[in-house]
Amino acid sequence: MPLTLSLLLDEVKEAAESLPFINQLFIDYIWQEDNQSFLLEEVKYDAIWLETQMTRCLAYWKGERQCRGVDIEDAWKCHSCDYQESCQWIVQKTKELQLAREKI
């Protein structure tokens, strides 16, 4: 049986369910130039938020929803996106910007 994305997701979910619960989680920010930690931030576990995010993301990967563009504040990420040339979000935002400029 060939490995499909659906089977892979099932395997990942099964593996994740067997992991122990972690009650403390930290993000360690490390400076790229010298690999020194400059901030250690504790992250509070929020089961509802995590479930919401996982459901939203998995719906995309399972083909149950269309992709969505980033928030306009995160549009800088588009410069490194492999799909920038064919992105409908960029086309729509460009049209909105042009219309806004015409109204000025």
TrEMBL record:
> Which terms does the UniProt entry file under GO BP?
interstrand cross-link repair
Which GO molecular function, any one, fits this protein according to its record? single-stranded DNA 5'-3' DNA exonuclease activity
- Any single GO CC term annotated in Swiss-Prot or TrEMBL for this entry: nucleus
Q: Which domain of life is it from?
A: Eukaryota
- Spell out the Pfam families in the cross-references: Exo5 (PF09810)
Instruction: Please give the family membership noted in the entry.
Output: Belongs to the EXO5 family.
Q: What is this protein called?
A: Uncharacterized protein
* Organism whose genome encodes this protein: Cherax quadricarinatus (Australian red claw crayfish)
Q: What is the lineage of its organism?
A: Eukaryota, Metazoa, Ecdysozoa, Arthropoda, Crustacea
